[in-house]
């Protein structure tokens, strides 16, 4: 309802702005009839069967059908348009029957006088109805008896209800009503955006606090890491110094021991080597001497044989004397 009122105010404002005074008067007159009733089926039925027909407001009754034809049907849609024409014919016949039941034959005559040409142009089955004001008991006439029954009137109201429900359920929302709806939607979106901006500001402030805390934690972590590294460096330096000192002592002791061993060993080895060298030299000298003696000095060879023989004799004599 709020959207409809807003759209009506927009139309009224536009007509005043353009100076369409005659149109504005007709618009105000149409609004007073409340045609359409915001597309509420029950209110439209109440308007037709409780206001227009009992009060013999024929012009407004015809205007509501003109409104339905222009806004919700077209001759191209033959099924829907034909259904609306048949429904209009039945409602107008109910208008005549209601006037006859109320004893208002003048309203029936007035009805045919005002709408006779319109009815005869498109509905040939209305010819018999032009004589109904002049029939004494039309409710007993076989041709009109059915229209005076309660079953027929109830069926007419139900058919009209179903028809209006069908066309209103598939109705496209007018653009003016969309303007109001979009306005309300934009208002809601602006409110949501404002709330989201406030929430974003809070989250940004919280994020800045967390970043400061994180930077402090990183600094403390870096200082702890640097302290550990310095401690490891000091420990490593001390252990390397101790290792160097022990290695130095070991090397010195090893050197001294090696030197002690080497001095003794070298002396013994040296004396042994000297002996070996002397012996080898002597043996070589003897060999050389023997070689020289045997080959180059034959006279020495005789003297050696004599001496060798004498030594053998002396050995034998000593053995004999001991025995």
From TrEMBL:
InterPro entries: ARMC9_CTLH-like_dom. Pfam families: CTLH_Armc9. Residues 179-220 form a coiled coil. Keywords: Coiled coil. Residues 62-168 form the ARMC9 CTLH-like domain. This is ARMC9 CTLH-like domain-containing protein.
């Amino acid at each position: 309802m709020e959207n409809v009122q807003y759209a009506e105010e927009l139309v009224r404002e536009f007509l005043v702005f353009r100076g369409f005074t005659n149109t504005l008067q007709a618009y105000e007159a149409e609004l007073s009839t409340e045609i359409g009733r915001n597309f509420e089926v029950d209110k439209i039925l109440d308007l037709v069967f409780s206001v227009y027909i009992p009060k013999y407001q024929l012009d407004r009754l015809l205007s509501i059908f003109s409104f339905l034809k222009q806004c919700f049907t077209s001759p191209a849609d033959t099924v829907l348009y034909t259904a609306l024409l048949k429904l209009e014919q039945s409602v107008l016949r109910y208008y005549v029957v209601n006037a006859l039941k109320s004893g208002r034959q003048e309203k029936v005559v007035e009805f045919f006088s005002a709408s006779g040409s319109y009815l005869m142009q498109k509905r040939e089955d209305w010819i018999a109805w032009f004589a109904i004001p002049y029939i004494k008991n039309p409710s007993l006439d076989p041709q009109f008896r059915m229209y005076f029954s309660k079953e027929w009137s109830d069926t007419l109201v139900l058919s009209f209800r179903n028809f209006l429900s069908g066309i209103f359920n598939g109705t496209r929302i007018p653009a003016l009503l969309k303007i109001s709806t979009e306005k309300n939607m934009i208002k809601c979106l602006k409110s949501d955006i404002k709330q989201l901006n406030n929430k974003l500001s809070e989250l940004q402030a919280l994020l800045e606090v967390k970043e400061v805390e994180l930077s402090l934690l990183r600094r403390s972590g870096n200082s702890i890491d640097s302290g550990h590294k310095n401690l490891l460096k000091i420990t490593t330096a001390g252990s390397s110094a101790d290792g160097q000192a022990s290695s130095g002592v070991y090397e010195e002791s090893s050197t001294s021991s090696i030197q002690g061993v080497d001095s003794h060993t070298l002396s013994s080895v040296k004396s042994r080597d000297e002996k070996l060298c002397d012996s080898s030299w002597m043996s070589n000298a003897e060999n050389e001497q023997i070689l020289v003696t045997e080959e180059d000095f034959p006279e020495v060879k005789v003297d050696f044989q004599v001496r060798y023989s004498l030594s053998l004799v002396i050995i034998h004599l000593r053995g004999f004397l001991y025995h």
